Amino acid sequence: MTSGNRSEAVDVQKSYEVRTYGCQMNVHDSERLSGLLEGAGYVRAPEGSDGDADVVVFNTCAVRENADNKLYGNLGRLAPMKTKRPGMQIAVGGCLAQKDRDTIVRRAPWVDVVFGTHNIGKLPVLLERARVQEEAQVEIAESLEAFPSTLPTRRESAYAAWVSISVGCNNTCTFCIVPALRGKEKDRRTGDILAEIEALVAEGVSEITLLGQNVNAYGSDIGDREAFSKLLRACGTIEGLERVRFTSPHPRDFTDDVIAAMAETPNVMPQLHMPMQSGSDTILKAMRRSYRQERFLGIIEKVRAAMPDAAISTDIIVGFPGETEEDFEQTLHAVREARFANAFTFQYSKRPGTPAADMEGQVPKEVVQERYMRLSALQEAISWEENKKQVGRTLDVMVAEGEGRKDGATHRLSGRAPDNRLVHFTKPSQDVRPGDVVTVEITYAAPHHLLAEGAPLGVRRTRSGDAWEKRTAAPAPQPAGVMLGLPGIGAPAPLPAAATPGCARD
Question: Locate the Radical SAM core domain: which residues (predicted)?
Answer without folding.
Answer: 155-386
